[in-house]
Amino acid sequence: MIFLFLSVLSSASIYLIFNLFGRYRVNLLPAIVINYFIASSFGFLHFHSIGEAASIPFEWIPTALLISLLFITLFYLMAITTQVMGISVASNASKMSMIIPIIILAVLHQSERLSFIQSIGIILALAGIYFTSVKSGDKSNEMKIIWPFLLFIGTGVLDFLLVYANQNLLTTSADDKLFTSLLFTLAFGWGIVAIIFSSFRKKIVFNKPTIIGGIVLGLFNYGSIFFLLRTYASGFAQKTVILPINNMGILIVSILFSILFFREYLSVKNRIGIMISLFAITLIFFA
Predict the structure, then answer these.
(1) At 109, is the pLDDT very low, low, confident or very high (cuts 50, 70, 90)?
(2) What is the DSSP string of 121-148?
(3) Are 131 and 270 in contact (CB under 8 A)?
(4) CB of 84 within 8 A of CB of 144?
(5) Are 121 and 280 in contact (CB under 8 A)?
């Protein structure tokens, strides 16, 4: 249970940090690359500090490469969505993405079959994303709605790959630590490639706010993934149950952050969308 709580807190804090990036003029791509360097370093230091030997199985590499590419791509997309449309929209889009791995798991495994009520919950989840993302009074937001939907699809694929890795590649807590560290290291590598290509178009600046922001983000980012994998491995509940609980917690905490720290305005449609989303998670969980 403690791992689940720490995963929720770490993940919700990421949205808070991204919002602060916009306020303190943090350069996004360099900060994200620093974040992955810090997360990778922290992961391997933690791994070696408890005396576990590092031997990366070859069969991990294809899945790890794909997950790490999604890591940095979706992190950038999450930051843009948070800064453009707000914490509530970004958190709702990324957390409602749980329906994608749930559907895939239901198709692949008889034990994970969806009930009728869970199916209704999935339909409501899609409606919740739409209403939470709609911002009235600004025609430009009709185009901006593409950001949360891209975030929704991408994060859903990422969630499924993490579940797949836990089921098929990882067998011990040492595997969880090593695999998490490997993901962050590969994401850092993808980030270096992105910076090299970006530098041909514009100057990449590593100023003080960017460095500090990247370091803080890296610590919370490492915690969000590591604690989620530990929750999966703990046997706390079925994976199709853990995902709704985890995502409901992140959604609630991130919305509280947006209201308490940033006074984020939520229209009637946005509030309806959030309530629909929470109800959808509840249906999927309790069904």
Answers:
(1) low
(2) HHHHHHHHHHHHH--TT-TTHHHHTHHH
(3) yes
(4) yes
(5) yes
Write out the two tokens for 201: 């178009």
What integer pLDDT is reported at residue 220 of this predicted model? 92
Residues 6+ apart with CB under 8 A from 125: 96, 98, 99, 276, 277, 280, 281, 284
Closest CA to 26 of 215, 202, 205, 210: 210
DSSP state of 54: -
Alpha helices, H only, the chain:
2-23, 28-49, 61-85, 87-95, 99-108, 116-133, 141-144, 146-168, 173-199, 208-234, 239-262, 268-286
Tokens of 277: 């989303």
Q: Report the C-alpha gap between 176 and 226 in whole angstroms.
A: 7
pTM score, whole prediction: 0.80
* DSSP assignment letter at 172: S
